[in-house]
Structures are given as C-alpha cells and as structure tokens.
C-alpha cells in the first residue's frame, strides 16, 4: 500500500499530495528550485485531522516533518524522502480577537502579517515583527521562539504566548488554551512546545497576548565611530525615553553601504562617514509630544557629543524607508555567489570586539568573498551573512568554527532566535553543557519514543 492511502478515510483528495504534485513543493522559500523529497504532503484543516494523521503515522512508524511558511534558516524543515510532511497552510483561521482580554486566538498556519492587519483594525498590536512577516506562519514562529525587531520592549515570542494547543506524536491533543497571564498551577506545559522546532509535538493553535496600538512611532538613523559609544547611547535612550524605546538596531559600516547602494528605495539616510549605524525606534501614545521628545533626545545627544550624526524620520513613509534598509537582506544575499547565515547571541559588552575579530578572521579564509554584520544589539543578537565562492563542506566548517568557537568562553549562544535545526546541532555543545543536553535527550525520548517527530533535528 502507498503510505498516502493510509489517510484517505479522513482526508479529501485535495488534502493529500503525492508524486508529481510534490514537484511543486519545496522545503524552503530560498530553495524553491529544489523539489521536495517526501512520501506525501498532507494539508489538514483542523486539529482533529492533525490528531488522526499522527495516530496513523505513529501506528505505522512514519516520520513526520511539519511545514509552515518555510522561512527558517537552520534546516528545520528539510526532508530526505521517507517522511510524511504536514503542511499547516490550511490551518489559517483567525478564530477570535478578544478586545477586553487583549488576546487573539489563531490556528497555527496564520501568517504573521495577517495577524498584524487584523489586530490593528481593532486598535490593538501584536508586537512581534521581523522581515519575513509576509510569509512566516505563527506555528513556526512559536516553534522556534522567534525574536525580531522589538524584543527590547516586548520580549521573545515565548513572552507573547498565553495559550497553546499541540498534538503529540501518538495523536493526543494537549490543550492549554487559556487567556490568563498568571497561571502557576504546576508545570507550564506549553513551554515544552515553544522553541522545540516540532520535535516534541505539532502546534495547531495559539492564544497570543496583544497590546494597545501605539499612537506614535518615531525612528532615526545615528552614526558612531566606536562601539563603546553605541552602548552608551543605548543606555541614554532607554533612560530618556521612559519605556518608549522599542528598537535599537546596529549595522556595521560595510553592511550599511551595501544595504543602501542597491536601488533608490533604500538610499542612505546618512553619509558613509561612520563605522557604525544605529536605527532606533520608539512607540508611544501621543505623536506630537513623543516626536518632540524624540527630537530633543537627538539634539541633546549631539550637543553632548554622544553621537556624531543623526537623521530623524519626518513621516511614517520615512520610518518605513528606514526599516526597509534594515529588513531587506536580499540586498546582501543577491550579490553573493553562495551565502551562509549566522544568528549568534553574546553579552552586549563583548559585541564590538568579537565582531571585529570575526571580520578580520573571515576575510583571511580562502573562498570567503563578503562578510556583513547587523543585528538587535540591545538584546545581544547579531546576524552574520557570509558570501563564499563554493559549497564545499570544508569551507562551511571553517566559517562555522570562525564564528562559533569563541562563544562558549564568553557565555554566548550559537542561536539567538533561529533555532538549532539541522545546521547547528553539531555546535549545540558550545552553548549547552552535557547535563543540559542529556536532559533534552531524556525529554525527547519520553515525548517521542520512536523518534518520529522532525527526525535528525536539534539532537
């Protein structure tokens, strides 16, 4: 029997994709030229169907990989051909927006940008925000505990999830769907599924915490000559803006030059005269007052020589222009022969020297053509993008070790927000000790004794 026939009794014909239909599928939006390898792709419409799928897979020892928006960068959705792929694209209903509780209940296949649009229509804000918001689905976002541009003010995804529903490997539905913020009734089981990349269960529904929609949004680009001045200005902004500071993005000079020299839509707000460029954002309740406060902060910082130069957004279209520069990494990737991405986390005081050392070391590696760095400096998260001339395993490992090998000594992490997946599991020991990894293995074995959920990933 073809494995796909096991699901005919409860899925419609259009919910089961096999053979030639798989040629139109892929495992990542940046690898659409590579057809998906899988036994079949299943398109469930609700939690009940996901549960039935998992019961069949468990009884027949079929490995399962979950596909959402396919924007991950660590191989979490890669397959080798013997897996059943569950796509959450039809789990796309926004079930409820509760204005009194300030929550939104959504199925796991809802795209982040659709959540933004729906909540803003109700005068509310789901603050999680990053460049792939037009493709990324909330199930994948939760399963990787994504971060983004506003972690400084609102925290990671984990801090924004109030309730969660997931299906275990044997098909049991675990429903922790509560709208309450405080609940200390024993173990918080939803945390097992947040950040576990589909290796412990399949997320089917979540309740997300919302905020009141800000009435003001201000942004500016600022120039610096040294990293210590960046850190000083971060503390300065945080104290002067009294909780309104929502974003503090750092871009190294060569990255800024490349990001702003590609086309007119991303022209440079500041000249190429500085070593570091910071994009700051504040959100508040009164546009007139907040804009004056923001402008006064910049003027005072210039007078006190805390910063070298600044340009403030004069309109919301300017704000969008500023963030388009930071978010459109295609302006870097499109000019690389081959690319390698990194998402590291390290204590803020070490960032300047650590990144400078990596820049110098990477440029000495034969086969490395470009090195770019930028990131969420306020939460210690820096992204590296390395352009290289070939896809050899030897070159990849040399680059990996150059980026990762110093992190353990300073208490850093090989993954700040992208997860571990397939690509980083060989380096997990650099940021987790033996006892932690052993406990993770015990948890995985307990919750997935046959190893069917997203096999080969993380551990």
UniProtKB/TrEMBL annotation:
Protein known as: FAD binding oxidoreductase
Domain FAD-binding PCMH-type: 34-213
PROSITE patterns noted in UniProt: FAD_PCMH, RRM
Gene3D superfamilies: 3.30.465.10, 3.30.70.2190, 3.30.70.2740, Uridine Diphospho-n-acetylenolpyruvylglucosamine Reductase, domain 2, Vanillyl-alcohol Oxidase, Chain A, domain 4
Superkingdom, natural source: Bacteria
Keywords in alphabetical order: FAD, Flavoprotein, Oxidoreductase
Family: Belongs to the FAD-binding oxidoreductase/transferase type 4 family.
One Pfam family of this chain: FAD_binding_4
PANTHER family to which the protein is assigned, alphabetical: D-2-HYDROXYGLUTARATE DEHYDROGENASE, MITOCHONDRIAL
GO molecular function, one term: RNA binding
Lineage of producing organism: Bacteria, Pseudomonadati, Bacteroidota, Flavobacteriia, Flavobacteriales
SUPFAM superfamilies per record: FAD-binding/transporter-associated domain-like, FAD-linked oxidases, C-terminal domain
Signal peptide: none
Key word Metal-binding present: no
Span of domain RRM: 170-264
Gene Ontology biological process terms in this record: respiratory electron transport chain
InterPro entries: FAD-bd_oxidored_4_C, FAD-bd_PCMH, FAD-bd_PCMH-like_sf, FAD-bd_PCMH_sub1, FAD-bd_PCMH_sub2, FAD-linked_Oxase-like_C, FAD-oxidored/transferase_4, Oxid_FAD_bind_N
Cofactor(s) the protein needs: FAD
């Amino acid at each position: 029997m073809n494995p796909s026939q096991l699901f005919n009794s409860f899925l419609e014909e259009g919910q089961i994709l096999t053979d030639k239909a798989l040629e139109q599928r892929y495992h990542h939006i940046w690898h659409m030229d590579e057809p998906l390898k899988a036994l079949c792709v299943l398109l469930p419409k609700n939690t009940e169907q996901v549960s039935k799928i998992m019961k069949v897979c468990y009884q027949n020892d079929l490995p399962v990989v979950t596909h959402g928006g396919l924007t991950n960068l660590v191989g979490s959705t890669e397959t080798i051909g013997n897996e059943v792929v569950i796509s959450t694209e039809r789990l796309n209903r926004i079930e409820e927006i509760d204005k009194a509780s300030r929550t939104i209940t959504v199925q796991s296949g809802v795209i982040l940008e659709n959540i933004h649009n729906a909540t803003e229509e109700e005068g509310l804000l789901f603050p999680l925000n990053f460049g792939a918001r037009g493709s990324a689905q909330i199930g994948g976002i939760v399963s990787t505990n994504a971060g983004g541009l506003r972690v400084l003010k609102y925290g990671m995804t984990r801090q924004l999830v109030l309730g969660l529903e997931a299906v275990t490997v044997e098909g049991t539905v675990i429903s922790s769907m509560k709208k309450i913020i405080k609940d200390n009734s024993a173990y918080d089981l939803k945390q097992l599924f947040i950040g576990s990349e589909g290796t412990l269960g399949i997320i089917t529904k979540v309740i997300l915490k919302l905020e009141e929609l800000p009435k003001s949004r201000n942004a500016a680009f600022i120039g610096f000559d040294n990293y210590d001045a960046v850190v000083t200005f971060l503390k300065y902004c945080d104290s002067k803006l009294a909780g309104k500071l929502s974003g503090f993005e750092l871009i190294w000079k060569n990255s800024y030059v490349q990001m702003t020299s590609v086309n007119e839509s991303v022209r440079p707000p500041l000249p190429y005269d500085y070593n570091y460029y910071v994009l700051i954002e504040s959100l508040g309740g009164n546009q007139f007052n907040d804009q004056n406060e923001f402008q006064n902060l910049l003027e005072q910082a210039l007078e006190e020589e805390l910063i070298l130069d600044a340009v403030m957004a004069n309109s919301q279209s300017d704000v969008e222009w500023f963030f388009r520069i930071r978010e459109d990494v295609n302006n870097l990737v499109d000019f690389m022969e081959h690319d390698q991405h990194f998402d590291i986390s390290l204590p803020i005081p070490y960032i300047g020297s650590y990144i400078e050392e990596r820049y110098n070391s990477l440029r000495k590696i034969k086969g490395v053509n470009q090195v770019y760095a930028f990131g969420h400096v306020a939460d210690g998260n820096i992204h590296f993008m390395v352009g290289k001339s070939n896809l050899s395993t030897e070159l990849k490992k040399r680059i990996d070790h150059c980026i990762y090998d110093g992190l353990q000594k300073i208490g850093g992490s090989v993954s700040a927000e992208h997860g571990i997946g397939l690509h980083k599991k060989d380096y997990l020991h650099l940021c987790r000790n033996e006892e932690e990894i052993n406990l993770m293995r015990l948890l995985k074995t307990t919750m997935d004794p046959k190893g069917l959920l997203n096999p080969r990933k993380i551990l």
